[in-house]
Amino acid sequence: MNEPLPLDHGHLQKLVTADLVRPDHLLGAHPVTENGVEGVRFAVWAPAAQHVSVVGDFNGYNGYDNPMQRLDFGYWGAFVPTARRGQRYKFRVTGADGRTVDKSDPYGKFFEVRPATASIVWDSDYTWHDDAWMAARTQRFDQPVSVYEVHLPSWKKRDDGWFLNYRDLAHQLGEYVTYMGYTHVELLGVMEHPFDGSWGYQVTGYYAPSSRMGSPEDFKYFVDHLHGLGIGVLLDWVPGHFPTDDFALAHFDGGPLYEYADPRKGFHLDWNTYIFDYGRNEVVMFLIGSALTWLQDYHIDGLRVDAVASMLYLDFSRTEWVPNIHGGRENLEAIAFLKRLNEVVHHMAPGCMIVAEESTAFPGVTTPTPFGLGFDYKWAMGWMNDTLRYFEEDPLWRKYHHHALTFYNVYRTTENYVLAISHDEVVHLKKSMVMKMPGDWYAQRAGYRAFLAMMWATPGKKLLFMGQDFAQSTEWAHEDGLPWYMADQPDHRGVMNLVQRLNALYCQRPDWHTADLKDEGMLWIDADAADESVYAFLRRDPGSAAWSLIVANLTPVFREQFPIGTPQGGEYRVLLSTDDGEFGGFGTQQTSLTASDEGWNSQTHSLRLNLPPNSVLVLEPLQASAVSDQR
């Protein structure tokens, strides 16, 4: 482990002026040797505190043995020669309000397993084996990104009901993700948190992986092993709010410190959490330091920033709010923080991606700074809502909502989008994805297969929550492991086979990913067959002659010899049919796959296709040809 930075005036001042982007190299607990004596140096920010001491295993939690010295700019420090790696500790803070509270370390690297809350003195001795991965990783928009979103505590459990260790998960999850063909995993709230039911979104340890599943070294092994399999690792990161637990960040020095003082600006009524004060440089550095810790020290390949909309707007989900200095509703301090975050990350962790979960039409989320927020990607929440509403409709009425599936293409190149079907869509009585589909069990699976094929064929990067790739019929429950027995049943295995095939097409075919974020990546053939609920479009690689034709029939009606325009004649072949028997369908066959010179849909040629009910066909010409740039 590298020696910590000197705890002197100059380095403390850099925190105050927002010039030290790794404050964890200065604050927290650091095993050191001072004047030939081994021990641990502790440092903490508590400007309004009357007194601070460090207590722990090394002094029997006696608040008198190791008082901390008040340093410049509201910081406190102490060297404890009796402290060692692996010992528990807390900061005993007598705050401005006169209360004395034992606080966990905001910069703690390791914590006790909940419900215990002490920090643990730690330094890492892990040896990485992913040099080649780290040197080669790149954030190129023309690369395939197919993300498997995972809640590690409930992906699988041990036979006794406890959590799998990170090392066990590395092998089991790595094998599954490789088999399914995903390019990345994204981990729900893996940072330390006290309440399982928060899914990790109410964080108390912004610098520590959850001890439920092992040590920091175990988590590094997890990342290292997945990198060895060619799988990227993304984390959900929550800089928008933090819990009110007394032992953690809340009122750290007896009053508002990490949070805004005015509750109209500093408290989330919906989530019962505090909002970070983005106007304080020390808070901004705390958050940026957390992001860099994961990207640099833990070799994480990207962060999905949670609840960005709640950060951007001062009136988010509230009736009483404080306008900004211009009288507007935007949180200018949070906007400045997000821009600084993205600038620092892209400079200091090149090749990493930063993704915004942003649910409004805020402009320029993925526009580079200074003109935009500087994110690499944004979740396509509009696409998700429109598409789910359409597929949940009774097919009898879908013709009246036909353009719900085409509207995304009006704005899809205004941002860099990820098509995300996340955990939020399969909890709180929303039903699992397959159970959202109308009809009987066969119709539900057929409809869901069509949904998945349309999702993968639509331009944009992909994200699917665990369990939905084998058509889990129950809602996700964080306290239970996934019902893996379902994946062994033919009805569910068929959907799993489809997702595996879709990932293969998406990753292997340049027309399915190189122009994900460009206008040229897609060309509508027929967007207006509302009465039949039929859609037809091309996916294209503008850099080559590769292209494919996607045809969807989204009613439970068999359409025989349905005409579809094509840009060239000759023979075609079926790359995928969601009605194939291996996916759980009937296996409908085509009479002919030779395009005639009869023009249709403003194209020069046409095919006559048998369209199975609730299905998607993917075809390609046997003789590749460049497709004219029509729109």
For the secondary structure, the number of strands is: 29
Supply Rg.
27 Å
Helix content: 10-25%
Envelope shape = elongated
Strand order of the largest sheet: 9-10-13-17-18-19-20-21
Given helix and strand content, the structural type is alpha/beta
pLDDT averaged residue by residue: 95
* Major sheet description: 8 strands, parallel, barrel
Work out the strand percent.
15-25%
Number of helices, where a helix is a run of at least 4 consecutive DSSP H or I residues:
14
Spatial separation of the terminal alpha carbons: 57 Å
Low-confidence stretches: none
Note down, in words, how this protein is organized.
- The chain has 631 residues and is an alpha/beta fold.
- The protein is built from 14 helices and 29 strands.
- A hairpin with a 6-residue loop joins strand 23 and strand 24 (547-553).
- The longest helix is centred in the C-terminal third of the chain and has 19 residues, at 490-508.
- The N and C termini lie far apart (57 Å).
Give the gist of this structure.
With 631 residues, the protein is an alpha/beta fold. It contains 14 helices and 29 strands.
What attributes characterize this protein structure?
631 residues, alpha/beta, 6-stranded antiparallel β-sheet, 23% helix, elongated
Outline the fold blueprint.
Layout: H1 9-16, E1 28-34, E2 37-45, E3 51-56, E4 69-70, E5 75-80, E6 88-94, E7 100-103, E8 119-120, H2 131-136, E9 146-150, H3 152-155, H4 166-180, E10 184-187, E11 191-192, E12 205-209, H5 216-228, E13 232-237, E14 242-243, H6 263-266, E15 267-268, E16 273-274, H7 281-297, E17 302-305, H8 308-312, H9 332-348, E18 353-356, E19 377-379, H10 381-392, H11 408-411, E20 417-421, H12 433-436, H13 441-457, E21 461-465, H14 490-508, E22 522-529, E23 534-540, E24 547-553, E25 559-566, E26 570-577, E27 594-595, E28 605-611, E29 615-621
Parallel strand pairs: 9-10, 9-21, 10-13, 13-17, 17-18, 18-19, 19-20, 20-21
Antiparallel strand pairs: 1-2, 2-5, 3-6, 4-5, 6-7, 6-8, 11-12, 14-16, 15-16, 22-23, 23-24, 24-29, 25-28, 26-27, 26-29
